[in-house]
Amino acid sequence: MAWAAISPEGDLAIGADKSEHHLTQAIPGCNYGRDDHIWRLPLSWPGYVCFRTAWEGTPIQISPSLLEYGQQQWAQVQQRYADRTEVDAGGEILDLIVSGIEMESGNPMQLRPDQRGGVAWLLKWGRAGIEDPTGNGKTPIVIRALQAQQKVTGGALPALYIAAGSALYAIRDKFAAWAPELRTSVVTGTMTARKKALEAEADVYLIAWDNLRLHTRLAGYGSLKLVRCAECGGGDPKVTTGRCEVHLKELNSMRFGTVIADEAHRLREPKSKQTRACWWMAHHCEFFWPVTGTLVAGTAADPWGVMHALDPKAWPSRSRYLDMFCVKDYAWHGGAEILGIRPDHAYALHSIIQPFWRRIPREVARPFQPPRLEPEFRYPEMEPKQARAYQQLARETLADLEGCSVITANHLEKYTRLCQLASSMVTVVDGEDSQGFTVPLVKLELPSNNADDLLEFCGDTEGQIVVAALSPALIDLAEHKLNAAKITTARITGGMSREAQYQANMAFQAGDVRVIFINEAGSESIDLQAASVIYFMEPDTSFLAREQKTGRVDRYGQQFPVRQVYALSPGTVDRHRYKLGCDKAERHDAVARDPDLLRWILGGEQVNWSA
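Predicted structure:
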């Protein structure tokens, strides 16, 4: 009969017959020992749950010590469940926050009760995350937690704060307001400027996600090959130490007590260099605090990357994780799409992810704040020649424009052109490819039904407006249209310096401009609650991007109900693009379980999180 026990080395050991090897192979991180024919995996609560899930319904003899371990871990998980929804801190931690930090320093900035509970959560569990919805005020939580942890252990500083590049200076300002005694250094600009910022004496170093990988070595992932310089065993003499992904760099020579990963949903792609850079830093610090309002950006596969950062031994294998917990749809041309959570294993997935994340719903954290209104829809009709080109391209692969033609070679290119034509007219101009040959390039131009509709919307709407879009070219058209109508604008988009993005943010918050345009570069970590309206000039297929952009307006301190307005060109691909984002929202809710969480906090129906 198969058996399982805790090995002398402290691993979870399994003995099984060959006919049962498919069960052990399903467990993430479980490997076979050819010498003693025993399967082993690192002992952890997630590993234990995966073992019990794989062997559910199959007889196996479990040693008393392993059963006792499972009972102890389940008791700790129940305590985590209680702590993750505790609205306020208590006891010594409450005294530390209120008397030891806020009252002693005389700082007028004070946390709400739910934020104090967040500080207590981070202090108690050390390596855990904050998953409060966007706008609840997660940055003050980690700032106070840094202050408190430093008072308790003296080992929290220096800290590395990884954030969106557009928010670095705004986060610096929040540190100045909430913890003026902590010295900050913003690591941005050229390579020379960033190195100088890292050499400065500081308590907290603020660095952008896209610059992180340039100042640390990368963690490995599966069989993905790391680029090596000659000194590190590489064979390409052109690879310098700066390009080497194994070489220790500036951040690796600094001892960080705490690493904070703001917008930690960026860790969902394990092959990306910024993810593996964050892994390395997270695995080499005592306290790791990931922060995000959207842990699940699109599928149940998303949490694995940040869970691996929290505990690589407990979350060793992504492929087996997907097999065990996710519903897949295999495409005929290869690859797979993750559709959702396997219903038969949902209880197990929730019991190993949720105990590591604290999430307080908006209704509990901000009951005094006006609600987020249901989405509104506007249907800007396309201009006649714009509609004619769209209909031609929708039927065929070619659209006749005035003096030129748009030809699409495949379905993806056709879809892209249809998305462009749904918002504005296009033209074809001569460009050059990488070899210098002349190629036709498609460029957006006026007339634009979406730019016209935005101008009309500004005339009908009072106050400031945040405008979200995907295409910088469409933003250019709309900004030109508004400026011609004497409507002041600013933007936070890609290609701008961090300082320029910060100045645009501050100008909008001060009321110096009426409309601010944002795309992906301005969708995270910035405060734009000077407006109570967000206008989506293009429908975003990403639930993550929609939620993050709306969260710039729907934030703590918002005084008015937040309006979400979507411009959808009738009879176009816009409707399908909007619906795709709604489908991903359902997948997020399946993991976040906000309705269940709200009932639990309000003392209603008791939720069995393990079943």
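Summary: Residues 64-84 form the longest helix (21 residues).
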